[in-house]
Amino acid sequence: MGEEATEGSGGHASNRLTVALRTAVRRSVGDAAFGPDGRLHDWRRALMPTYTTNGFVLPDGLDHARLRRAEGGSAVALNSFLPWLPRSQLLCLCSLKGFHELRLHARCPAGMRGTPPRLDLIAWRKAEVVAVTAKGTDYLKAPDSKRARSARIEAAAVFAPWLLQLDRLRDEPGVFRHVDLHALVKLAIGVGSTFPQHKATLLYLFWEGDDGATHDVCRRHRQELEALCEAVTESGVRLHFLSFAELWQGWLDEVKDAWLRDAVKALRRRYGLAAAPSNAPPS
């Protein structure tokens, strides 16, 4: 288990944000859908109603266990990207458009020993690939720093900037209090090794809340991400980050169709983000 990432007022903010997301989701889904452990009885209840009716065909290979956490990043990401499956050419990620394939809950089997890391989405076009990993409020608690400090990962020289950050974490244990560096390094190596001929970007999505910019814990999280993005700019896999609110608003700015407006409205309502996002700058 990770330690508390914040103390005092920061810890209270973490609790409030976590409760806010959980409450919004329960209000949308209904308390009866949840078991005593806080997880859904049926993973399908994590989906927006439009994806369980009207003959919508779900892709194979979804991680049902992860989706039983209705407030988890995987559920938010799945509901965000499902409407794009038949419209991949319109999707904009990391300033790229024209994706010819989208794959949800995909694994990157190359580059690492053991169980291959799983991505919430992989989108690719021509010689470029964007791999998405999503967080709910997981980052509000510190990751297992002992695991990261003891990790010994071997990888090609192109991933050296990522591995240098693991070395830094061993020397400065408190440098990443919210970012799970060990997990991101594994994902980056998996993506870059699976798609060695592609220009690869790892897109890190997270739920922040309408008032995220007012909380120290959210600001620190962003500062850590900004520093990591800069540190791995010259690596084989770059890092980019956005809150879900920023992602959705960016889509609305890019695509003016009614189906997208309806989809974003439903997402904001379910995940407690009725208002437009703050002006906090993306990476």
Structure description:
- The chain is an alpha/beta fold and 283 residues long.
- The chain has one domain (9-270).
- 37% of the residues lie in helices and 13% in strands.
- The protein has nine helices and five strands.
- It has helices at residues 9-29, 64-67, 73-81, 145-150, 160-171, 181-194, 216-231, 244-254, 258-270; strands at residues 101-107, 118-125, 128-135, 199-206, 237-243.
- Strands 1-2-3-4-5 form a five-stranded mixed sheet.
- Strand 4, helix 7 and strand 5 form a beta-alpha-beta unit.
- Helix 5 (160-171) packs antiparallel against helix 6 and helix 8 (244-254) runs antiparallel to helix 9.
- The chain starts with 8 loop residues before the first helix and ends in a 13-residue tail after the last helix.
Summarize this entry quickly.
This protein is 37% helix and 13% strand. The chain has 283 residues and is an alpha/beta fold.
| Envelope shape | globular
> Low-confidence parts lasting 5 or more residues at pLDDT below 50?
1-9, 275-283
Quickly count the helices.
9
Strand content: 5-15%
Largest sheet: 5 strands, mixed
Provide the succession of SSEs.
Answer: HHHEEEHHHEHEHH
Structural class: alpha/beta
| Portion of residues within helices | 25-40%
Number of strands: 5
Q: Could you give the distance between the termini?
A: 29 Å
Number of domains: 1
Task: Estimate the mean pLDDT confidence.
Answer: 87
- With strands numbered from the N-terminus, the spatial order across the biggest sheet is 1-2-3-4-5
The radius of gyration computed from the alpha-carbon positions, rounded to a whole number of angstroms, is 18 Å
